[in-house]
Each structure stands twice: as structure tokens, then as C-alpha cells.
Design brief:
- There is one protein chain.
- This protein is mainly alpha-helical.
- The chain folds into two domains: about 5-185 and about 295-325, HUPs (Rossmann fold, 3-Layer(aba) Sandwich), CATH 3.40.50; about 210-290, Tyrosyl-Transfer RNA Synthetase (Orthogonal Bundle), CATH 1.10.240.
- It contains 14 helices and five strands.
- It has helices at about 15-30, 40-45, 50-65, 85-95, 100-105, 105-115, 120-125, 125-135, 150-165, 210-215, 235-245, 250-260, 265-290, 295-325, and strands at about 5-10, 35-40, 75-80, 140-145, 175.
- Strands 1-2-3 form a three-stranded parallel beta sheet.
- Strand 4, helix 9 (about 150-165) and strand 5 form a beta-alpha-beta unit.
- The chain binds tryptophanyl-5'AMP.
- The site of tryptophanyl-5'AMP has 25 residues, from strand 1, helix 1 and helix 8.
Amino acid sequence: METVLSGIRPTGNLHLGNYFGAVKNFVKMQHKNKCFFFIADYHSLTTHPTPADLHEGVKNVLAEYLACGLDPDVATIYIQSDIPEIPELYLLLNMIAYKGELERTASFKEKIRKQPENVNAGLLTYPVLMAADILIHRSHKVPVGKDQEQHLEMARKIARRFNSMFKTDWFPEPKAYNFGEELIKIPGLDGSGKMGKSEGNGIYLIEEPKSIRKKIMRAVTDSGPTEKNQTMPDSIQNLFTIMNAVSEQETIDFFRDKYNNCEIRYGDLKKQLAEDVINFTEPIREKILEIKSDSAYLQRVVNQGAEQARESAKKTIDEVRRIIGFKPF
Ligand code: TYM
């Protein structure tokens, strides 16, 4: 049986990008594989959250995961900071990760640009912590969106390097995973790149219908097609990408034909898209609210997850220590 792992930073609520990029695939896989899903609270420290925000973020994301259909009696759901074996593996892997390759990752370069006042060492070694997250359970598949592709490449490189350095095959090479083969990127509503927590361009699972309608009606468009079958500009393609995720095929075909025949009215497209997004998010939103108010349940999930995840993590770290050459006296 293959081991599947995925995670999320608890810095803000789950948005459609997180859901369609990672959570949805994971929910599908949980019954057929050995699955681990975790909340990457150590990763979120790179941006210095306040203590209160840190805890609130973890609680929100946990309730949101569960509301999306992750089943704690099937998959192991845990909080990263409950598993001390992860930072231990991170330390050991840091010895075989090199400054040059870490400096070259796109995410590091982007962070330097975005937060020049806080270029901490945790940002530089972020991909090593991610590799430790993945390798601690010797995972084979990692359901993620397109934005995490390079981090997965780094995890593979580190796994290969460890294996070849110590002449072992202990770590499998983890693969970024999506059922549709191509990794997914859900765009933001501002006509630019991906939907992201820090970009402020997201639609959240917990969002009120009124606010979703407002955001979608305000999404960037252009003045409309002037030639039949012309290529869509990014801002319009983005609306269709979201539609592909939430709407019926009939609806998508209808508006695509309208666009191709230069008959499209963006107002109608957006109204339909807003209703389809709300149909999708509303049942999840109700579940989130219900789960979030049940502290005893959340506590049970977290305790159970920590126990199971530690059992698996301990097996790996014991073997890694043995391979590296630590011996008891
Ligand atoms: P994070 O918290 O930014 O995002 C969580 C998951 O959501 C996916 N995602 C998207 N997919 C498609 N379109 C989008 N617009 C979009 N935005 C986010 C991400 O690809 C990710 O799968 N470093 C990771 C968290 C992490 C992790 C790990 C993931 C830490 N350790 C180990 C997997 C395995 C992150 O910041 O994801």
C-alpha cells in the first residue's frame, strides 16, 4: 500500500485553491492508501504570527480539513509541532542540503522580494523542513498544487542524496500528485497569478455567500471578444478555470460557446459562477461552523492523530539514526 501525505500552512482560511489543488485529491485517496494529513504550523513561523493567531489558525484549518471530508478514523490527521521526530529529521537533512540550491528555489527568491525585512534562515531551509515532513513517513505520493512542484523536486533530491550517501534505499522518492496528471493552479480573481492566502485574492470555504457574490462580480474582465474563437485573455480564462472546478459541464459549455460566438455577457457569467461557487461552499461552510464549536471532538482528533503519526515517525527516525551511525553505548 502506498503512503500519501499532504499538508497546509495554518496562515488563514482554506480557499478554493487549497481545496482543488490538494484537499480534494487527498479526500479521494484516503480510503485506498495509508494517508497522513497535517497542519504545518512550524512552517507558518517564517512570517512571525502572534501566539494568538498561531493557535487560532491551527484550529481553523483543522476544522476546515475535517469539514472537507477528511476522516480522522481513516487518515492520520495531526499537527506538525506535536511530532518532535520531524524537527529531528529536519536537522539531519539540513546537513545534506546545500546553501546554493536552497537560495535558487523560486519560493525563496519570491520571499526575499516580498519580505526583505525578514529573510530568516527558516525561509532558506523551508524546503528541507518540507522534505522532513514528507520523508518522516516515507511517503510515495504528495497531493499538492502546481506551486509546490519545485519543493517536491527538492524533497526527491534530498531523498536520493541520503540514499546514495549512506548506500541505502530507505527513502522512496516522493512524487507530487494529482489524479488529472497535470498539477492544478486555481487563479485569483484579480486577473493575476494563483489564488493565495497572502495575495488577498481568494474565495474561502468559510466565506458568506454575500461576500462571495461581491468578490466574483468585481473580478477583473475585459471589454469582451471581438473575433469568433479568439484566445481568452488570462483574466477571462481564470473565471473559466474556477468554473471548471465548481460548475456542471453543461454550464461551462454554454458560456464557452457564448464567448466563442462573441455573445458573452460577463455579468451573466459571473452571476452563474457565483451561484455555483456558493452551492459548492455552503454545505462545507455549515460543517466548518459545526465542527469548530465542538472543542472536545477537535481535541480527540488531535490526540489520536499525534499518537498515530508519532508511531510512524519514530520508526523512520530510529532507522535514520542507525543508518547515519548513532549507536547506543
Ligand atoms: P499552502 O499552505 O500554501 O497550500 C496548501 C496546499 O494548497 C495548494 N494550493 C493551491 N493549489 C492550486 N491552486 C492554488 N491557487 C493553490 N494555492 C495553494 C498547495 O499546492 C498546497 O498543496 N509548503 C506547503 C505546506 C507544506 C506541505 C508539506 C505540503 C508543508 N510541508 C509537505 C505538502 C507536503 C504550503 O505552504 O502550502
